[in-house]
Automatic annotation (TrEMBL):
<dbReference type="InterPro" id="IPR006026">
    <property type="entry name" value="Peptidase_Metallo"/>
</dbReference>
<dbReference type="Pfam" id="PF01471">
    <property type="entry name" value="PG_binding_1"/>
</dbReference>
<feature type="binding site">
    <location>
        <position position="221"/>
    </location>
    <ligand>
        <name>Zn(2+) 1</name>
    </ligand>
</feature>
<feature type="short sequence motif" description="Cysteine switch">
    <location>
        <begin position="111"/>
        <end position="118"/>
    </location>
</feature>
<keyword id="KW-0378">Hydrolase</keyword>
<dbReference type="GO" id="GO:0004222">
    <property type="term" value="F:metalloendopeptidase activity"/>
</dbReference>
<feature type="binding site">
    <location>
        <position position="259"/>
    </location>
    <ligand>
        <name>Zn(2+) 2</name>
    </ligand>
</feature>
<dbReference type="InterPro" id="IPR021158">
    <property type="entry name" value="Pept_M10A_Zn_BS"/>
</dbReference>
<dbReference type="GO" id="GO:0006508">
    <property type="term" value="P:proteolysis"/>
</dbReference>
<feature type="signal peptide">
    <location>
        <begin position="1"/>
        <end position="24"/>
    </location>
</feature>
<dbReference type="GO" id="GO:0030198">
    <property type="term" value="P:extracellular matrix organization"/>
</dbReference>
<keyword id="KW-0865">Zymogen</keyword>
<feature type="domain" description="Peptidase metallopeptidase">
    <location>
        <begin position="145"/>
        <end position="299"/>
    </location>
</feature>
<dbReference type="GO" id="GO:0030574">
    <property type="term" value="P:collagen catabolic process"/>
</dbReference>
<protein>
    <submittedName>
        <fullName>Metalloendoproteinase 1-like</fullName>
    </submittedName>
</protein>
<keyword id="KW-0479">Metal-binding</keyword>
<keyword id="KW-0106">Calcium</keyword>
Length: 303
């Protein structure tokens, strides 16, 4: 094991034991990494009228914490926004204050998946009902309806579309193999007119109602079963493995394939289904990811 791998393993171990200690120390060293949310928002709370707060409202709406009926314009920090920030803080196991503290803004600023964390559905519930777990933290599904593939589709056919980079195809296939070792699924190559999973690199508005705005936009997104579309944002810098300022295709593929199979986001930081993905990090399926897929397809719930 070389030094870099060794340090990564150490980081993952320490992060699993003390995620908040790591986050807190990180914040002392670095300023907010984002251009999306300006530094002056740190510390703002209900009743404040502060330039840039509409961007926070739009962010929380995009990821399911605020109803789409709420007007995102204006810079008044109102009750709705406070409630949404508390929901976000609760989801990510932060201090639930309703105040935009540095830790909350830092997490909002991290590169992440474009799929919402919370889905309001027609039953009035959300996908997080499944997270009411004795220990408190775990995987989720898209919503209370738990969309999943029918048993006749457990052998999924996949196709790379358009200009999917040749050098990353095997990386994505390795991610499929990881899921197949840990679920009821098998994957085999399909053809354009006979496929279940369609994987592509996309830019800007690519026709599915969720445009990739720019390199500050979502890293990737995928759709719930049995849709099968999996899109990487081509505007980000990608790599096969952990490299500075680049995102690991394999880790993001594992995450998006989780959505393809029916998983929502997890609030376990080292799970593949955790919504944020920093550069220079490689992740593998965690026990939480495997528990999630087992709960969905084998009906095996954790104790
Ligand atoms: Zn996601
Ligand atoms: Zn898309």
């Amino acid at each position: 094991m070389d030094l870099r791998s060794c340090l990564q393993v150490m980081f993952i171990l320490v992060a699993a034991i003390a995620p908040h200690a790591i986050m807190a120390r990180h914040l002392h060293i670095h300023k907010l990494s984002s251009s999306i949310f300006p530094q002056h928002l740190v510390g703002s709370g209900k009743g404040h009228n502060i330039e840039g707060i509409h961007n926070v409202r739009a962010f929380l709406q995009r990821y399911g914490y605020l109803s789409t009926n709420v007007e995102t314009k204006g810079n008044v920090f109102d009750d709705n926004l406070e409630f949404a920030i508390k929901s976000y803080q609760k989801f990510f196991n932060l201090n639930v204050s309703g105040i935009l503290d540095a830790e909350t803004l830092e997490l909002m600023s991290q590169p992440r998946c474009g799929v919402p964390d919370v889905f309001i559905n027609e039953t009035g519930g959300d996908g997080n009902g499944d997270r009411d777990h004795p220990i408190g933290l775990h995987y989720s599904f898209f919503n209370d309806l738990k969309p999943k593939w029918s048993a006749s589709k457990y052998n999924l056919k996949y196709t790379f579309l358009g200009s999917f980079p040749e050098q990353y195809k095997n990386t994505v296939i390795q991610a499929m193999i990881s899921w197949s070792f840990n679920s009821v699924f098998a994957f085999s190559e399909g053809s354009t007119d006979n496929t279940d999973v369609r994987i592509s690199f996309e830019v800007g508005d690519h026709g599915d109602g969720s445009p990739f705005k720019d390199k500050n936009g979502a890293l990737a997104h995928a759709f719930a079963p049995e849709d099968g579309r999996l899109h990487f944002n081509a505007q980000h810098a990608w790599a096969d493995g952990a490299y500075p300022d680049k995102f690991d295709v394999g880790s993001v593929a594992l995450h998006e394939l989780g959505h393809i199979l029916g998983l929502g986001h997890s609030d376990i930081r080292d799970a593949v289904m955790w919504p944020s993905m920093p550069p220079n990090l490689k992740k593998e399926l965690s026990s939480d990811d495997v528990s999630g897929i087992s709960a969905l397809y084998d009906g095996v719930e954790e104790d």
